[in-house]
Amino acid sequence: MFPSYLRLSKREINEKIKKLHEILKNCEICPRKCHIDRTKGEKGYCQTGIFPRISGYHPHFGEEKPLVGDCGSGTIFFTSCNLSCVYCQNYEISQLRIGEEISFEELADIMIKLQDLGCHNINFVTPTHQIFQILKSLSIAIEKGLKIPLVYNTNAYDSVQVLKIIKGVFDIYLPDLKYSDNDIALKYSNASNYVETMKSAVKEMYSQVGDLLLDKKGVALKGLLVRHLILPNQLAGSEKIFQFITSEISKNTAVNIMDQYWPAYKARYYPEIAERVNESEIEKVYGLAKEFGLKIIS
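Above: the chain's sequence. Below: its structure in token form.
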């Protein structure tokens, strides 16, 4: 099975790049809609200009098993984020924006290097605010021989308009469904209207790729793979998240329930999330997932 992007003509890919570039001129690339001209160096919430900005890349063996396989997931970490999670475990990258600006050609070369290392996919971590940069570089990487699936690894605070533009590019969508309550999302991630935005985005993702499809070795080829991080004191609203998945997405949705929360970054200033999740909280969320019949993976 060829990656989806290889079925697109060069003209089709260039048209997508052109549309994304136009959106950057009055930026609505994500739901924040900063309305600044990133093509002229103006910077909004994400503080990212027109060129790619990354903190690093490597074959990753700590991701979900269907992404890692035997040779790892070719992970590229993009600097900054369109959320401001007070407990972010990668805050140096997302909040402090430690990284470097590179050229489109350099990003394309990184994709090829990861492929040459045997990675099963190219895993773009936090791609939302740099999706133009990704497609611009992808067009170069295709010319250089890129031929493995692409993973859109996102916080799910995505624009449906943009997702529709990139249809046919990504084989695997990996959204992290963080909250089922808007007030909580605003408090801990500074995200307005998160729940409705997330739901609309995930529905669009699923419409493009469907349920997770694996090869004979259990490596992901295509589909939706949902993440859900357990927060202390049930603040993530897991039951409502699972209800949404089963009733509005698919009962066959693959879900990774993440129980590694720890009070990173500014979490210590919030007593209700200043400690790790405990065993009873973890067991409760796993129990709920099983009650809903979800396909749990690790």
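DSSP finds ten helices and ten strands in the chain.
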